Amino acid sequence: MKLASTRRCLTALTLGAASVGTAFANPSLVLTLLKVSSTTAGGVKSETLTETKKVNPGELLMQRAVLHTDRLIVNGHITLPIPANTHYLTGTASTTGTSQPEFSADGGKTFSAHPMKTISVTENGTNVQKTVPVPENEYSTLRWTVSTLPSGQEVSVSYRLAVN
Q1: Residue closest to 77 by CA, chosen among 69, 67, 64
Q2: Quick check: helix, strand or coil at residue 59?
Q3: N or C: which end of the chain has fewer CB within 10 A?
Q4: Domain annotation for the chain: domains and CATH numbers
Q5: How far apart are CA 151 and CA 46, in angstroms?
Q6: Residues 75-108 pLDDT 10s
Q7: Buried residues in 105-121 as b, exposed as e (16+ CB within 10 A)
Q8: What burial class does residue 149 get, using C-beta atoms within 10 Å of its C-beta: 0-12 exposed, 13-18 middle, 19+ buried?
Q9: pLDDT, tens digit, for every residue of 20-44?
């Protein structure tokens, strides 16, 4: 299966104001989609990450974004979609910064650490509504808040996914 251009995979980079009346110039965000290959030699496991445009079902990928700016960023967001025909792998979201990832199961409309959904179930012959956690393989988007990124610094975020 061919993957969409990694430039199109990025849905949003939202930057907060550095201070009242100050705009920033030249933030850059580089998005990379990498294939994860594992090998074992002499009983030692190692991983190789390579850029790819074609993948097969069952293969593992890592999506990584690196934000660099020449101005102070305060309360910005890096928002990455989970590409079609893939699903998020539990516990793989990471950052070189301090923010914790938030997840969306509705295409990036709402985010939380643990998205919930309402389902209808039958209990004792009665149809009732219950709020339950969204399974992680149903997540659609990840977001990290960049609380402060000083001028000339960068932050990297990543997560792993499997091809359906």
Answers
A1: 67
A2: coil
A3: C
A4: 6-163 (2.60.40)
A5: 35
A6: 889 999 999 999 999 999 999 988 899 999 999 9
A7: beebeebeeebeeeeee
A8: buried
A9: 333 444 688 899 999 999 888 888 8
